[in-house]
Write a structure and sequence with these properties.
- With 429 residues, the protein is α+β, with helices and mostly antiparallel strands.
- The chain contains ten helices and 16 strands.
- It has two domains: 296 residues, Antithrombin, Chain I, domain 2; 86 residues, Alpha-1-antitrypsin, domain 1 (Roll), CATH 2.30.39.
- The strands form three sheets. Strands 1, 2, 3, 4, 5, 11, 12, 13 and 14 form a nine-stranded mixed beta sheet that branches. Strands 6, 7, 8, 9 and 10 form a five-stranded antiparallel beta sheet that branches.
Length: 429
């Protein structure tokens, strides 16, 4: 299908997109956007059972990824956004077929029909967006913020399938930003990083590291989540002893006495601390044995812990936290969790996205940061899925066998001039 014919048939609008600054020399760039004729559905058809199915899938995935040791930093801490990763892969799921689709469904616990799944994703996104409508304060005094943004960056010389554009538009509020990976993959990387920086209040500047793209790159799918909220009741500043792997150490902390939802079991204590507006909370779970507890924890068990909390007076003291996460490659972790096929040229199938060529996922990048203090919490994360062209090699003539298995000569020469630069006689390698 020719590109021009595709755009006529799909009735797409090409719109300029202005992008703001980024840390590696990006300037304001105009990018054309290919959009479906459809708008985002403001009232997606879903139900409580579908919502629970998708949320449980996200929770199960997050718990499984959290058990992977390689996502932790050198100090043993880990912090990431299972939502960001799941939404990004939800967008990818809309373009997957065959084994790729099956493995994505298993890894993310997707059991709904396609339309129901994407509609439920849309419903969750719209619900999250509504949290900021009533106002409220952020931890920095600038107002409550919770934003979830999606973008798809596609090779401008390729045609992108109308049904896939409809999925992106109806359920994720995204079009396809058309960039020139073939001729300027480095410029495209900077443009995508600039978009991510803009939508994370300049907290995540280099989501895509250097050399993460190439002239074989064909798409990058990005999700960005930004959260900043004040506690419902502000904490006081203090210090506390903390018994970590290196022993007991005094650390900066926050403390407050209030009636919180609380639970104590034989294995752990659980407390939930509301943010202003009481629509979002921080849940802290303090197990007696973290490794053993994590090994047994699944979505149902976690849901039971939340459900069994009840209001109780609590004097809560917990450490201040600052986690400045670097960009992580999740390729190995996701492969281990069941997604090896999407990274393998013989199994990847994203034919619902485009017929311009075969695609395979190169890598998945994720970065997250956290700041928790007496005022509240700021948490930010972004996920990028990088897809590349899978080029089929032509079958040539049968190769001639040559076994260099006895004494031989070697020459190193300059081709244009024919000059011999080095020469050798090899009798015994």
């Amino acid at each position: 299908m020719g590109k021009s014919a595709f755009f006529e048939r799909a009735a797409l609008a090409l719109l300029p997109l202005a992008l703001g600054g980024c840390s590696d020399e990006a300037s304001t760039t105009q990018v054309e956007v290919a959009r479906s004729a459809l708008s985002r559905d403001p009232n997606p058809a879903t139900d409580p059972a579908s919502l629970r199915s998708v949320v449980d899938g996200d929770i199960a995935f997050g718990l499984a990824l959290g058990r992977r040791a390689d996502i932790a930093s050198s100090d043993g801490n880990s912090f990431f956004s299972p939502h960001s990763i799941a939404v990004a892969f939800g967008m990818l799921y809309g373009g997957a077929s065959g084994t790729s689709k099956t493995d994505l469904a298993k890894t993310f616990g997707i059991s709904l029909a396609d339309d129901a799944f994407h509609a439920t994703r849309n419903s969750i996104g719209l619900n999250l967006e509504s949290r900021a409508i009533s106002g409220g304060q952020g931890s920095d005094g600038k107002g409550f913020r919770l934003t979830v943004e999606n973008s798809f960056w596609g090779e401008k010389s390729w045609s992108w399938e109308t049904p896939y554009l409809d999925v992106l538009a109806k359920n994720y509020g995204a079009g396809i930003n058309l960039v020139d990976f073939k001729a300027d993959f480095e410029g495209s990387r900077k443009t995508i990083n600039a978009w991510t920086a803009e939508h994370t209040e300049e907290r995540i500047l280099d989501l895509l590291p250097e050399r993460s793209l190439s002239d074989d790159s064909r798409f990058v799918l990005v999700n960005a989540v930004f959260f900043n909220a004040a506690w419902k009741e502000e904490f006081a500043v203090t210090t506390m002893p903390f018994n970590g792997p290196a022993g007991v150490k005094t650390v900066p902390a926050v403390t407050h006495e209030s009636k919180y939802r609380y639970l104590k079991t034989d294995e752990a204590e659980v407390v939930s601390v509301p943010y202003e507006g009481e629509k979002i909370e921080l849940v802290a779970i303090l197990p007696k044995d973290l490794s053993a507890f994590e090994a047994r924890l699944d979505a149902a068990a976690l849901r039971d812990l939340f459900a069994n909390e009840s209001p109780a007076p609590v004097i809560l003291t917990m450490p201040k936290l600052t986690i400045e996460g670097a960009t992580l490659s999740l390729k190995n972790e996701l492969s281990a969790l069941g997604l090896a096929s999407v990274f393998h040229e013989d199994a990847a199938d994203f034919s619902k996205m485009t017929k311009s060529g075969a695609l395979v996922i190169d890598n998945v990048y994720h970065q997250a940061k956290l700041k928790l203090d007496e005022k509240g919490t700021e948490a930010v994360a972004a996920t990028a899925i990088v897809g590349s062209d899978l080029v089929s090699e032509e079958i040539g003539p049968t190769p001639i066998p040559m076994n260099v298995d006895h004494p031989y000569l070697i020459f190193i020469r300059d081709i244009p001039t024919g000059e011999i630069l080095f020469q050798g006689r090899i009798v015994q390698p």
